[in-house]
Amino acid sequence: MDSHTRCTVLVRAIATALVLSLFGVACGNTPGESSTPTGPPSTSPHLARSTECMPENGWSVARLFNERALDAIRLDFPAPTTHARNLYHLSAAMWDAWAAYDPDAKGLFFEPEQVYRDDGVARDDTIAYAAFRLLRYRYEEAAFGKAKIRRALNETMRSLCLDPTISDLDGDTAAARGNRIAQTIILETTSDGSNERGNYAAQYSPKNAPMVIAESGAVLTDPDRWQPLQFEEAFTQHGQRLPSQLQNYIGPHWGSVTGFALEEAPDGLPIDPGPQPLFSDPTTRPEFVASAIEVIDYSSRLDPNSGADIDISPGTLGNNSLGTNDGSGHAVNPHTGDPYEPNVISEGDYGRAVAEFWADGPSSETPPGHWNTIANAAADDPSATHLIAGTRATEDRLEWDVSMYIALNGALHDAAVAAWGIKAHYESVRPISMIRWLSGNGQSSDPNLPSYADDGISLVDGLVELIDDASSRPGGPHELLQDHIGDVAIRAWQANAPGLPDATAGVGWILGVDWLPYQRDTFVTPAFAGYVSGHSAFSRAGAEVLAAITGDPFFPGGISSWSIERGELDFENGPSHDVVLQWATYFDAADQAGSSRLYGGIHILADDLVGRQIGAEVGRMAWTRAQQLLPS
Known about the structure:
Elements: H1 3-23, H2 61-75, H3 80-99, H4 122-138, H5 146-159, H6 174-188, E1 211-212, E2 229-230, H7 285-300, E3 309-311, E4 344-346, H8 347-357, H9 366-380, E5 387-388, E6 392-393, H10 397-426, H11 431-441, E7 464-466, E8 488-493, E9 507-511, H12 534-550, E10 560-564, E11 579-583, H13 586-599, H14 605-629
Parallel strand pairs: 1-2
Antiparallel strand pairs: 3-4, 5-6, 7-8, 8-9, 10-11
């Protein structure tokens, strides 16, 4: 036996012991993973489910455990890669449990030798035990909130009149069947490249020294590469305090994680879209600088008192071609035949609202979970038909839910694998480093003006300007910057600018070296590279699957919306008036999620648009794969 084989055997043995320990089973009594004969119909803790033992809100048991997973994500460390994986494997556990009772369905990780027979509740109970054991195992060592997660899962089982302490793997009970399915998936995914046993950690050495947020400027050894941030106080995007004030790159190895439909990539790059605009490449340097200026322009629009109004109705916004913002909305709602009503609001309110709605910040479920909430809301809509691909009727809501979850979360998992593979390969810089570095170097527009530098930022009237004696006089645009003659000023969101209340910073002229994105000052920017946007990849992948499985790109009824009341924003006081975000199609919502990251200062345009293309490719592959599992 060579060293590689011995190592593999050892890892699997350790993993098996850990899983069996969690299930309360001695290592010497390990049953076959899928060899138990069907025997008589499964016996369940109850012969008929009473109303007291039904899932809450009339949900299916699959929906119930999907909600518990989303609750767990809201409590745990907000790593979208990890949570996409957990949602995928939860969906696989529930799908395999459902499929084990259907002769025409195909399991993903687990298939019984013979199709199980149901006594009326056995299928539900099998799904419950499979989901419960998978989630308990995955969140047993959650970074945050593990006690609350464990308690919620136990209470969920008891609400179904099921005993959470049953850990049997042997036999034909629903509990044993569900436990076997969970065990199979846990063991099969132990060596999937995620380094689950090592808390998903991986070695990464940044090319640039950290940027100290509290200090001006950015020093970049390589302006094309990601730069970690150093905080005085660091928090997760969920608002949890971190023990270290220095960012550590999340998921540099994720491109090598085993996917749902993606083929394995030995180099960790399953899909290669080519590089982002590079400062080091003379042909793309102008695009690099222009991309930074574009983010400044988005930041300059975050003033609700600017008088700039926009119509955000689906009749005006959306309907873009893939990878573009070329759409001009939809002529009519195809479900009603009527035009969409105008929805005119301040662009400052709109930009701040979309930045925060899609930011998936405190108490959120991260982007993969967000698309689960969108899918659940669409499925709950009274006008939803629950026809697979718009044609095949499902037996009940349970079949719809397990079918939708395996397709959706398989796609979202693959989006994480593909996007993070690109992030790690190209290691692209974030806007905060770009803007501070370029501004600190000077201006590159006119060698006859002060502060000229070939590696500086371009001047743009009213947006990027040099501070001079005239502009800094009382009443001038740069009067608050009079001590910085010759430096670059930008018109942008002021964050915690001197002389303004923190809650209503607004937009004004600030030093380019001090710019912050529209985020909390304890978070600022995610701890991984920008290109490509994870939000864009996740969102487009989710949209592709929802459009495919429903057979309709439009939301039920032709429109979906979300209301943000006046004063509900977190980053500063706002919006100044109620905002109702609206989308006609799943693709419109996905595109808005991507664009929101420019308003939020997190991404440049290339991150967003290429991310949408990656998401589309991944989503289509995932739907093709899912159809191979579903009954015909």
